[in-house]
Design goal:
There is one protein chain. With 218 residues, the protein is an alpha/beta fold. It has one domain: Aldolase class I (TIM Barrel). Helices cover 32% and strands 17% of the residues. The strands form 3 sheets. The protein has a 5-stranded parallel beta sheet with strand order 3-4-7-8-9, covered by helices on one side. Helix 4 packs parallel to helix 5 and helix 5 runs parallel beside helix 6. The radius of gyration is 18 Å and the shape is globular. 34% of the residues are buried.
Length: 218
């Protein structure tokens, strides 16, 4: 009943605006240390059976927040108290960029899903790095990095390396994103000849674990 009522209200507003509003409310609710402690007491995973260590990083729970919700790391301190075992922020690019023109987020009511054509809108790796230095997160934070749209493919290596230089040392793990269909030519970087130098450059900039996000239909 409550879901139906909220759904009716939310559907009166564009999906991207609702996302912004809900995210703002979550940040307010977790803005104080005391509120984060209370939420963590109720929601954070505490059973040792849920804890696991993968590629040298210990996760208190198996359910994490995927990249795309917190693009700029504005809610880094919120995700642990809200019950997530980790959070992946981004996708972030070396240069700030506005993403694709609106509308770019579409509801699919029959599928209970959203169609995302955002296009890596973010404030840039430099701004995210500042937020990471101030992080009080209680769970691992991964940084998902992508190529800046205006960067030509032949300079993709430098683009990924710059994002890693800024954010890699401050993250618990780095995810190299070459899977998004919303950045022209990005999936071409999945080819071994293109991906190998990107990963070499990324690994040269950080000692943290490096993962690769590839297209599901590769």
């Amino acid at each position: 009943m409550m879901y139906r009522a909220l759904r009716w209200v939310f559907f009166l507003v564009s999906p991207e605006r609702i996302h912004t509003w809900v995210f703002a409310l979550l940040r307010v609710a977790t803005g104080l240390a005391v509120s984060r402690r209370l939420l963590a007491k109720w929601l954070a995973p505490s059973d040792p059976v849920l804890e696991t260590t993968v590629f040298g990083v210990t996760f208190p729970g198996p359910v994490g927040l995927a990249a795309g919700f917190d693009k700029n790391g504005s809610g880094i301190n919120a995700w642990g108290p809200l019950g997530f075992g980790y959070a992946e922020v981004g996708t972030v690019t070396a240069q700030a960029q506005p993403g694709n023109p609106a509308p770019r987020l579409f509801r699919l009511p029959e599928d209970r899903a959203l169609l995302n054509r955002m296009g890596f809108n973010n404030h840039g790796a430099g701004e995210l790095a500042i937020k990471l230095t101030r992080s009080q997160s209680t769970v691992p934070i991964g940084v998902n990095i992508g190529k800046t749209k205006v960067t030509p493919p032949e300079h993709a290596v430098d683009d990924y390396a710059e994002s890693t230089r800024l954010c890699g040392p401050l993250a618990d793990f780095v995810v190299v994103n070459v899977s998004s269909p919303n950045t022209p030519g990005l999936r071409d970087l999945q080819a071994v000849a293109s991906l190998r130098p990107i990963l070499a450059a990324v690994r040269a900039e950080t000692t943290k674990p490096v993962l690769v996000k590839i297209a599901p239909d590769l």
